Amino acid sequence: MTKVFVAGANGQVGRLVIETLLTNDCEAVGGYRDPVSQARGDTTQFHAVHFDLTDPVSTLAQAMAGCDAIIFAAGSGGKNLLEVDLDGAVKTMAAAQQAGITRFIHLSALNVQDRSFWPKSGINDYYIAKYYADEWLKTRTSLDWVIVEPTALTNDDGTGKITLKPQGQSQIPRQDVATVLVEAVTSDLHRQELEIASGDVPIAQAF
Questions:
Q1: Are 11 and 74 in contact (CB under 8 A)?
Q2: How many angstroms separate the most distant Cα atoms in the chain?
Q3: Which of 44, 65, 115, 155 has the greatest number of C-beta atoms within 10 Å?
Q4: At 193, which helix (H) or strand (E)?
Q5: Which neighbouring-strand residues pair with 158?
Q6: What span, in angstroms and rounded, lies between the C-alpha atoms of 84 and 163?
Q7: What residues contact residue 196 under an 8 Å CB cut-off, 6+ apart?
Q8: Tell me: the pLDDT tens digits for 91-150?
Q9: Can you spell out the DSSP letters for 49-61?
Q10: What pLDDT, on a 0 to 100 scale, did the predictor assign at position 59?
Q11: Which residues pair with 6 in a beta bridge?
Q12: For 10-25, b where at least 16 C-beta lie within 10 A, e where not — what string?
């Protein structure tokens, strides 16, 4: 049974990732700032641990020790982009390497790599943080990564279907993003980026 650590397990996508892992016969370790108030009770398949992205790398590494893969779905909601969305992601990558975990699935955003698509206001700083976190993962680590880059997120029910490399305006339910993140863990993708939106291709057949 694959044991997956989820950074940001209490976030909107993170909670769905945990549920999806458990329904896919994976063992899930959820990282929470306050596991007592934020997490469900432990089971044989699920374990909640304290995980604060402002902690030292060595502390983060201890929390994820023994896992087979990392899904990074954490974010500050725009409140602490440098320390959480950027440096927190980089520290989690360093912690994974320190803990001997090579598989790293990183949640990013569509068109982050192209500055011409960055919004001029609002979430522009989020795109900047994600851009440099992605670049660090690709060029400054030896991790076996997959970067998942969804279009605009919704809270609609998941369809289980996506399209790759979407063009024009598009959306995707958070549940489908969570499914892609989980599927990516055991996929044949290695050091690749996945640009996704809702579509007609079943997720299990899409990559």
A1: yes
A2: 47
A3: 65
A4: strand 192-198
A5: none
A6: 29
A7: 110, 148, 149, 150, 151, 162, 163, 164, 166, 172, 176, 177, 180, 206
A8: 999 999 999 999 999 999 999 999 988 887 778 899 999 999 999 999 999 999 999 999
A9: EE--TTS-HHHHH
A10: 98
A11: 30, 71
A12: bbebbbbbbbbbbeee
Residue 109 CA, distance from chain mean position: 10
Contact in structure between 35 and 12 (CB atoms under 8 Å):
no
Token pair listed for 133: 């976190």
**Alpha-carbon torsion (62, 130, 124, 7), positive or negative:** negative
Count of CA atoms in the C-beta half-sphere (13 A) of 115: 2
Report the C-alpha dihedral over residues 187, 193, 195, 199, rounded to 10 degrees: -20
Please, which residues have CB within 8 angstroms of residue 38's CB and are 6 or more apart in sequence? 9, 10, 32, 48
Tokens of 150: 């969804």
Residues with active-site annotation: 126
Distance, in Å, from the CA atom of 24 to the CA atom of 186, rounded to the nearest integer, reads 11
Q: Which of 24, 40, 31 is nearest to 70 (CA)?
A: 31
By CB atoms closer than 10 A (0-12, 13-18, 19+), residue 171 is middle
